[in-house]
Amino acid sequence: MSQPVALITGGAKRLGAHLARGLAADGFRVVITYLGSQGAAEALAASIGGRAVRADVSQRADVEALFGSIAEHEGRLDLLVNNVGVYEPTPVADLDPDGWDRQLGPNLNGAFYCCFHARPLMGDSGLIVNLGYAGVDALRANPDATAYQVSKTGLLVLTKSLAAGWAPLRANMISPGQLANSVDLPDDLRCIPAGRAGTLDDILQALRFLRDAAYVTGVNIDVAGGYRLA
């Protein structure tokens, strides 16, 4: 019961899996959720001494069951990382309600469901970290990825609202830029002032900073090498 517990949604692969390994190395018991990647999730959980739970975070019943399981097995939660992010770039002229729901459901609604159920397990010392995208602070049109942008902009507002309304529990956002494994990494990296794509370790470093920075809440950190500054 003295071991800190972290939950990472969508933690079976890619960034979520890397964060899970890093937190486990730091002494956390890590619970990860998965939807379709059962084998990868269970293998990762076994390798780090954690636990994998299937949950569709866009479904309220799944989220309630997930946190009931955490209450039963771990008995506490210290860190929630809302990592799930469905990205389906679609011209807004072709966007339909199904495409909207596929992104708003997990990206925004699911994050709120997780925050809501996490709060009783976290107490005053808990930390919520939501994953955004570089430049989310700036309101600008994005006609090629409107639903995704709306979901992450809403998530930023939620992050700030929770930081203000749920204090002293802390809530922050990390917004990656173009990572080396991004699905739409540009061929020309001159758009990134730092001159390189980001790494998964760059995001883990930011998460560790927020974990230890007890006086930091309600902020968004662009981990993007200057991408989208202009």
Please describe what this structure looks like.
The chain has 230 residues and is α/β, with parallel strands linked by helices. The chain has one domain: NAD(P)-binding Rossmann-like Domain (Rossmann fold, 3-Layer(aba) Sandwich). The protein contains six helices and seven strands. The protein has helices at 14-25, 38-48, 60-73, 97-122, 146-165, 200-212, and strands at 5-8, 29-34, 51-54, 79-82, 127-131, 170-176, 220-223. The protein has a seven-stranded parallel β-sheet, with helices on both faces. α4 (97-122) links the parallel β4 (79-82) and β5 (127-131). α4 packs parallel to α5. The longest helix has 26 residues, at 97-122. It starts with a strand and ends in a 7-residue tail after the last strand. The model has no long low-confidence stretch (mean pLDDT 96).
Features:
230 residues; alpha/beta; 7-stranded parallel beta sheet; 6 helices; 7 strands
* CATH homologous superfamily caption: NAD(P)-binding Rossmann-like Domain
Domain count: 1
Distance between the termini: 47 Å
Q: Can you count the helices?
A: 6
Give the SSE layout.
Layout: E1 5-8, H1 14-25, E2 29-34, H2 38-48, E3 51-54, H3 60-73, E4 79-82, H4 97-122, E5 127-131, H5 146-165, E6 170-176, H6 200-212, E7 220-223
Parallel strand pairs: 1-2, 1-4, 2-3, 4-5, 5-6, 6-7
